Amino acid sequence: MTVFIDGHACGYELQRLTQMFFPGEKVAVEQGAPPEDFAGDFLHARYREGLLEAVSRLGDGFPRALRAEAPAGGTAGLEHRFGVLAYTLLSEGTGVRPPWGVLTGIRPVKLFAARMEEGMDEAALRRHFMDERLVSGEKFSLAVETAAVERELLSRSTPDSFSLYVSVPFCPTRCAYCSFVSHSVEQAAKLIPDYVDRLCGELAATGEIARELGLRLRTVYFGGGTPTTLTADQLSRVMDAVAAHFDVASAWEYTVEAGRPDTVTEDKLRAIKAGGGRRVSINPQTLSDGVLAEIGRRHTSARFFEAFELARKVGFDCINADLIAGLPTDTPEGFRASVDGVLTLAPENVTVHTLTVKRASRLSFGEARAELALVDGMVGYARRAAAAAGQRPYYLYRQNGTLANLENVGYSLPGREGLYNVYIMDETHTILAVGAGASTKLRHPVTGEIERVYNYKYPYEYLSRFDEVLRRKKRVREFYLE
Ligand code: SF4
Questions:
Q1: Does the structure show a pLDDT above 80 at 358?
Q2: Helix ranges (DSSP H) in 275-355
Q3: Which of these, 96, 149, 335, 343, could form a disulfide with 378 (CB 3.0-4.6 Å)?
């Protein structure tokens, strides 16, 4: 697929929009008009003397064209008008109607929150998002509801707030769909003892900086990978280092991901509890054993139920469970059974991710349309089931590179939301991150400026270049004092 940009500078936005219809496929951007003998699919967006014209040709079909007058509002106005023309042409040509309309960003709720902050009432919001930006009614109400809950959670954060992220990038095996930097234990087991030592060292250095700057810890989050790949003793060591160098008692939340049920044991859960952990995430992804085998997770749904019950027994009163809609070989019935099965356990939070086909270029337009309807139907079911269980959506982000960039949504019982998820997604306050693959995200308390400080991606680099990791951490101090 090629987008030809002719007489304007909206290439980036049009490429992103087109990509939603062709995930996984390379969407090239060229300047000027398509050559006469151009053979592939294309979208030609042309701007001349106050007139916009979009022409698309897909497959063997005839080219189709739409025109509009140039809007007010400079580049943003032009981008929006071209976006609507392109969306209309591409959805007519493919039959796929991305339900978020022309919104391409990964945080649509932020746009809704900003308009609500400006005082737009529901009718004005509907006009703005549904009529002008072509957002579906269902996504509109999802975004409005999420924004309202999020707003209250965000308002708790103050300029001196920060969250701490601890990365444990190891997993027992690698899931087929994984895109994170995680090493299976078979490969990396020998690195873990040194990794734990270094992590404790980085926590000490980071805690010192946070103390010096007078920052206030709000949430702690152990993620990865699968933190419970560590032994109970290793978990205790890292959590003791957190407690020694940070004011954990004043934090609002302390989460440890115990993502893979096959890593969850009673002694690890007890170590987490003793170390100050208050929330765990145990993630079945699906309750279908056939689908679990298909995606390379070496556990059964029964193992998930055991792990969940164990966490309750140990005393966790805030448990999250992740599910994925659109896993290979899963069906709508299978997904519905997974949602219902998880909700019978009455978890405080359920997070529903979408995993639609990444390479839609392998699909015909009809298949892509069916795929979108299927997965969107699954996430719609999850929303209704969560609502029936008293859970509200509290954070939402979209996933680039999936068909129509469908959304991931966190649901929660009121008052039990996973705050870290909201703060990281909104960039509300600084996230100090430690460990391999972690990136510290600094938010300036006065200017709101964002800067990232990256750690090395892979554990072996993190270990061998640890001095550099500590050197980079000094940037945190400079950033706040500048
Ligand atoms: S548990 Fe998560 S991080 Fe680990 S391999 Fe699976 S998807 Fe990747």
A1: no
A2: 289-294, 301-314, 332-344
A3: 335
- Per-residue pLDDT for 183 more than 80? no
- Domain at 153-476, CATH class: alpha beta
pLDDT in tens, 274-316: 999 999 999 999 999 999 998 888 899 999 999 999 999 999 9
**CB of residue 167 inside a 6 A radius of ligand 1:** no
Pick the CATH number of 2-94 from 1.10.10, 1.20.1070, 3.30.160, 2.40.160: 3.30.160
- Could you tell me what percent of the chain has a pLDDT over 70? 96
Q: What is the tens place of the pLDDT at every residue in 214-246?
A: 999 999 999 989 999 999 999 999 999 999 999
The vertex-240 CA angle with 238 and 243, nearest 5°, equals 115
The helix or strand, by DSSP H or E, that contains position 480, with its residue range, turns out to be helix 466-481
Question: Contact, 220 vs 242, CB < 8 A?
Answer: yes
Residue from 179, 226, 399 to probe ligand 1 pocket by mutation (most atoms less than 8 Å from CB): 226
Q: Is the CB of 282 under 6 A from ligand 1?
A: no
- State phi, psi for 169 to the nearest 5 degrees: -85, 45
Model confidence pLDDT, tens digit, residues 14-38: 999 999 998 878 899 999 999 999 9
Where in the chain are all domains bearing CATH 3.80.30.20? 153-476
- Report the residue among 182, 286, 408 best suited for mutation to probe ligand 1: largest number of ligand atoms under 8 A from its CB: 182
Q: Give long-range contacts, CB 8 A cutoff, 24+ apart: 200-203.
A: 200/237, 200/238, 200/241, 201/466, 201/470, 202/434, 202/435, 202/466, 202/469, 202/470, 202/473, 203/166, 203/238, 203/241, 203/242, 203/245, 203/246, 203/434
Q: How far apart are CA 292 and CA 330, in angstroms?
A: 10
pLDDT digits (tens, 9 = 90+) for 370-405: 888 899 999 999 999 999 999 999 999 998 877 778
Query: Which residues make up the CATH 3.30.160 domain(s) of the chain?
Result: 2-94
Element counts in the chain: helices (H) and strands (E): 16, 18
Degrees (nearest 5) of the Cα angle 371, 44, 66? 80
Name the pLDDT band for 121 (thresholds 50, 70, 90): very high
Q: What is the mean pLDDT of residues 360-367?
A: 68
274, HSE (Cβ side, Cα atoms, 13 Å): 14
Residue 178 buriedness (CB in 10 A; 0-12 / 13-18 / 19+): middle
Sheet holding 279-281, edge to edge: 392-398, 407-412, 349-354, 319-325, 279-281, 253-257, 216-224, 161-168, 430-434, 439-443, 450-454
